[in-house]
């Protein structure tokens, strides 16, 4: 490794300090005063009001390395993790921001300089592609960005025009937004050895990986979809540290960078699972180790920032992440609590950049251990009953859910792993019937007896699964 993940983070921040940016510390994963947001999902979140003109700072340029979690809400990557090379639930977003100061021209020039200058990242320009917004009914094609990319020397064959899905960025359904330009890196033919990789932009395991998004913040979107121009056009960029590390360390996956290999090794020790040397034989176990490493980071940082496992809201997403990690430990044969030990591995790797972990690690580990113990009790009862037949029948699955508190997402996940189609329709039907029965028996105030712990799951929990795609790369 010629440049460690820690070094890359530092280089990025130093580069932008050199361009007059104030280095600002990451904000918490729990957004301050923003009920529209589940977790901090981008570097710009902490500056939302500055973009909107509602808040003033004593600087007009900032640079950050921001803790982000994308496991719910508008940006949800939970189902991808472990099965793509480039998605995490928790990741660090490196960003530079202009609050009504510079705009497209400088943002593009800075990004290109950092990536290609031999004094900085020195990436071969022949391996990069950029995209611009092609325009739609509300916002015109981004001809300016196109020209500025040509100006820094990107040949026109390497500039692609894309639609709103990829090239119009919004932090949520409302709030600051604008057209964007993205920079892609070609992982090359080596990545092509895996046939699932040789796909077009935007696919899960694309040979071309998106590394950096430059957002030209121009509008505030209201809940009825109307775009109001911001007081001043601004810049918001985001580059995943894990992805740029993948590029600079010359590996094919974020999970092969030094940001992850120590965690994967530790997960391997704790689950006492030795991955087979043969890629084909044990891809499933490798995915489990990646998931444990990833989810340990997310759980550690979320709890450290004050989230606690619960049956709704943020706490529920945390619980789901932890249980998914625990379940993959079980797939590797580890039925005893182990995730709480991962907390210390995460601290050891990350405390240099996020010193708060030194203070919080013991408390975090306790919370994780308690969740592992509680979940083990639930599973002990429910798992014995969970078979492929149960998963195929919504009514049987509902019985498990109702009687043992077996979480729905757990069964859906298990069905996917077993290659069985989960009967969501039957499950919903059984649930509706139960609700009708329950309502009838509530007359006179006689509540049913104690509800299983996981009964009150929020409806939003189902979102990800209905959108699930069948993808050869998943195991
Ligand atoms: P993708 O299309 O790969 O899902 P995105 O377009 O959703 O990424 P942006 O919202 O543009 O991502 O975020 C800016 C940058 O943050 C991305 O260019 C990428 O480098 C990084 N990033 C986004 N999501 C993740 C994730 N789940 N894990 C790791 N890095 C991510
Ligand atoms: Mg995405
Ligand atoms: Mg994208
Ligand atoms: Mg993007």
Automatic annotation (TrEMBL):
Swiss-Prot/TrEMBL GO biological process terms: alanyl-tRNA aminoacylation; negative regulation of DNA-templated transcription
Cofactors, names only: Zn(2+)
Subcellular compartments: Cytoplasm
Cofactor remark from the record: Binds 1 zinc ion per subunit.
Known catalytic reactions: tRNA(Ala) + L-alanine + ATP = L-alanyl-tRNA(Ala) + AMP + diphosphate
Alphabetical keyword list: Aminoacyl-tRNA synthetase, ATP-binding, Coiled coil, Cytoplasm, Ligase, Metal-binding, Nucleotide-binding, Protein biosynthesis, RNA-binding, tRNA-binding, Zinc
UniProt KW Coiled coil keyword: yes
Domain Alanyl-transfer RNA synthetases family profile, chain residue ranges per copy: 3-475
CC per GO annotation: cytosol
Molecular function in Gene Ontology: alanine-tRNA ligase activity; aminoacyl-tRNA deacylase activity; ATP binding; tRNA binding; zinc ion binding
Major enzyme class: ligase
Note on domains (UniProt): Consists of three domains; the N-terminal catalytic domain, the editing domain and the C-terminal C-Ala domain. The editing domain removes incorrectly charged amino acids, while the C-Ala domain, along with tRNA(Ala), serves as a bridge to cooperatively bring together the editing and aminoacylation centers thus stimulating deacylation of misacylated tRNAs.
Entry similarity comment: Belongs to the class-II aminoacyl-tRNA synthetase family.
Biological function: Catalyzes the attachment of alanine to tRNA(Ala) in a two-step reaction: alanine is first activated by ATP to form Ala-AMP and then transferred to the acceptor end of tRNA(Ala). Also edits incorrectly charged Ser-tRNA(Ala) and Gly-tRNA(Ala) via its editing domain.
Protein name: Alanine--tRNA ligase
Organism from which the protein derives: Edaphobacter acidisoli
Lineage: Bacteria, Pseudomonadati, Acidobacteriota, Terriglobia, Terriglobales
Included range, full protein: 2 to 476 of 891
